[in-house]
Design a protein that fits this description.
The protein has 232 residues and is α/β, with parallel strands linked by helices. It has one domain: P-loop containing nucleotide triphosphate hydrolases (Rossmann fold, 3-Layer(aba) Sandwich). 31% of the residues lie in helices and 28% in strands. The protein is built from 7 helices and 10 strands. Strands 6-7-8-3-9-10 form a 6-stranded mixed beta sheet, with helices on both faces. Strand 4 and strand 5 form a beta hairpin. The two termini are 20 Å apart. The chain binds adenosine-5'-diphosphate.
């Protein structure tokens, strides 16, 4: 018998409003379980970034509850929230956000800066993470010596080096050509097969359709939550 995997993220009736009567999220409930690979998909202005910020604990909801890695975000101070984020969530951004003057190993090692790991071990784990994203041959390259796809793989290694409960990827192929984008998506599939829980935020329907679960946003609400049948 298999048990239901643990929830990594649970949003219940989450709203997020801004001044001027802007309702970016209007009662969003969703559960992401360990081992899932899903897309949050929708057109511009549908609330995806707001959902990403709430799930990533970068922003607090106006109302409703948010649990990440078992913690109730509403009950945590900003300092505890930063710790939760550093330990349990890995972020990947459209434009990579790598430090320009630092090589791949040091960029990835920075992903462990707040985990209290000594420098030597940070670098060793960074090298292992770069091998995992198939960049073992680019360890001493700086971002300006890497292609876009390689930069994104360094960013993914940085997000993964601390073994987070959740990888949040915000338009991870948005700045890449088609071939590099496909390579990055293949990598996300590989990482998911070895157990990483991954949530991809995208406006691109083709990318969403390539993932096993799609949560569709429109005007701050979830309009569909669909899963593909497993192909064996
Ligand atoms: P998406 O990522 O799908 O493009 P967003 O989450 O960025 O959508 O935006 C959802 C809605 O909330 C939009 O109408 C947007 O203008 C508004 N919004 C987002 N962030 C803010 C903010 N900081 N202040 C005011 N309005 C915002």
């Amino acid at each position: 018998m298999t048990s239901t995997p643990t929830p990594v993220v649970e949003l219940r009736d989450v709203t997020k409003s801004y001044e001027g009567d802007v309702h970016a999220l209007r009662g969003v409930s969703l559960t992401v379980r360990e081992g899932e690979l899903l897309a949050i998909v929708g057109p511009s202005g549908s609330g995806k970034s707001t959902a990403l910020n709430v799930i990533g604990t970068l922003d607090r909801p106006t109302s409703g509850t948010v649990h990440v890695a078992g913690y109730d975000v509403n009950t945590l101070s900003d300092a505890r929230l930063s710790t939760l984020r550093a330990r349990h969530i890995g972020f990947v951004f459209q434009h990579f956000h790598l430090a320009p003057g630092r090589d791949a190993v040091d960029n990835v090692a920075d992903g462990l800066l707040y985990a209290g790991v000594p420098l030597g071990e940070r670098r060793a784990r960074a090298r292992a993470a770069l091998e995992r994203v198939r960049l073992g041959h680019r360890l001493s390259h700086r971002p300006d010596q890497l292609s876009g796809g390689e930069k994104q793989r360094v960013a993914i290694a940085r997000a993964l080096v601390g073994e987070p409960a959740l990888l949040l990827a915000d338009e991870p192929t948005g700045a890449l050509d088609t071939a590099s984008g496909e390579m990055v998506m293949d990598l996300l599939h590989d990482l998911n097969r070895t157990g990483t829980t991954i949530c991809v935020i995208t406006h691109d329907n083709d990318i969403a359709e390539s993932l096993p679960r799609r949560i569709r946003f429109r005007d701050g609400e979830i309009t569909a939550d669909s899963r593909s049948r497993k192909v064996s």
